[in-house]
Model the fold of this input.
Amino acid sequence: MPPSRPEPRPDKARTASQRLEKTIELLDHRYGPATIQTARDLPLSVVPPHIASGFQALDALTGCNGIPVGHVTLLSGRTTSGKLTLAYNILAHAQHGSRAPRGKSALTPESVGIFDLTRSSDPDYIARCGLDLQHTLFVRPPDPRQAVPLLFDLLQGYGFKALLVDGLGDLLKTRSIARSFDTALPQLARALRQARCALICLDEPAPPWLSWLKLGSGAIAHCASLHVDIKRESWTADSDGQISGYTAHAQLIKSRWNMLGRGGGDDSCTLGVEVGP
Amino acid sequence: MTILCAHTPDFLYRLAARQHADWDDGSDARERRPVVLTGPDDRIWAASPLALAAGALPGLTPRQARARCPDAAVHSLDTNEADAAQAAFIGVLARTGLPVEPQSYGAAYCDLSAISRSPGDARPVCADLGKQIRAEIGVALTPALGVDHGKFTAHAAARAVPPGRMRLIDRADEVSFLSTQPLTLLPLPPEHVQQLNWLGLKTLADFARLPASAVAARFGKAGKLAQQWARGADERPVRALAQAAPEAVTVEFETPCASLDRARDAIMHALAPRLREMAERLEGCRRIQIELHGLDSARAHAQAGFAQPMCAADDLRAGVSRALAQREWPGELSLARVLLLDLAELAPQALTLFGETLQMGAANASAAPFARVLNRLGAKHGAAFFQGVVVDPAHPIPERRTEWRVGVES
Done:
């Protein structure tokens, strides 16, 4: 039987609480009121710095008014689900802030980077999504093993507002790269916070048998502060019958700032994505 | 077409030297002092042959010019006198009633098609025009004349002969004439000229022999056009002064604008597509005029001029800043209207050992946002950084609408 911890003597406890109150008074006097607060007094949720996604419903769903800056965001969905277009829209908003992204902004856009690991990016489409190509750096590592060190290097004070990793699934298919990526994730999270940069990773949902056989890498999903799954519902067409966008269903899988999904509240929304002419 | 190119080398320097006999007194060249002339933008607009030979090229700051040519004497250029001389120069050509297209100071094209069917027929007319120009603006500013079916070859011909002489090129001799001319006659961007030089291409014939698709892939539309010129295929007409009605670019501010930086950025943003088109046509503007509209319907005009035709965003940005800073603003701005005036062919760039200093505008973060990334990480990671450029957004084949450029545009 473990020995019981002795109860503090009442006079000693009183002295400790008095000392604490005195210290708080001193700090309040020196640094202003409410410098020290109890957890009870803190606001329920603190909205972190964020990038608007351009969709009010999605911004409300994430609980942080968009995509958090300084954190990892995971957008998952099958091919042609619309996650890439959504990511481009987010990057356009990262470049132009709250201003209109489609060529109407007068101020210098922020810099963003796209890790084009699939080598399938189309600058014309990206420009029509509202991105300023002059302030968009495309990174295509000659060797996939360079991807992780490159990511770290780009976070070292180059002022990127957001980085998009397209084709994470392909990258992590190589066991050695997946292992180094998983190992680097905590360090990456710290680097993102310091660089005040948002990292958006695009991933495809892994088949269940991978997790049953413990072959899949779930580290990125674990590390991500926000995880949204996208499913395309239908294409939308303009008056001429040309496809002008699509309707997608966004399902919140995880958010550090929205606990409603777990409580049985609204955890999904519908997005109407339009692409510029 | 029969096109005459009249070109007076070192026009601005020769004009200024007329007032300063000591600059060119015929003494031993070793005892003469090199001279550079600065324009209203505090950049070198003209330089004496000695200063040019030392590397004090137009576009540099006086400090940069002194670094290259420590003995250079820096003087201010009288732009009013230069404009008057240029007007007289153009006036002589315009009096013929033929279409005349002014280029930079002391250079112009004149379309002789109405009076001569071939360059050979134009000899007496050209001789007469040369005499008239010499009589009008002085012996020191006598032009060299070149005549051909195309503008570029006529220009090359005018540069191939000394002032007071003319060179007429028949269609049959075009290719052989051009083949020996230096590559630096092409008004390509300095970095492209430098790359071609590193590849060992020295003459127009070397450039003309390259596969057209490879040139287009590496140097874009401007390179493709330049190669056509190098092959003697130049179908550009002479744009008469009366036809050259400039098209205004209008910038509407969503919220009232009281900041110079914001106004400049908005203007440059609106001008970007136009500048891109001009660069593809190897054209530039020599003057930019801005009409500012205040909220209370007050108006103000601002303008800036350049020594040579410009189409680089950095150079224009510096010009717009200068123009906006000079003028008193009509309160908060609601609208700005910009005119790019005096469009002309870009000036050929000389090869330099340190070409980067020739960029007139300060290389700022907004102009080359990833230059630092490339400088620091390029060597470590190799060719991992690309920039996507939309070159032809309306092309029917999607793959042809865009280009990938290795590295980052600076």
Summary: Strands of chain A lie at 50-51, 67-68, 72-76, 111-116, 136-139, 160-166, 198-203, 226-237, 243-255, 268-274. Chain A touches chain B at residues 103-108, 111, 116, 121-124, 126-127, 133-142, 146, 149-150, 153-154, 158 (CB under 8 Å). The mean pLDDT of chain A is 80.
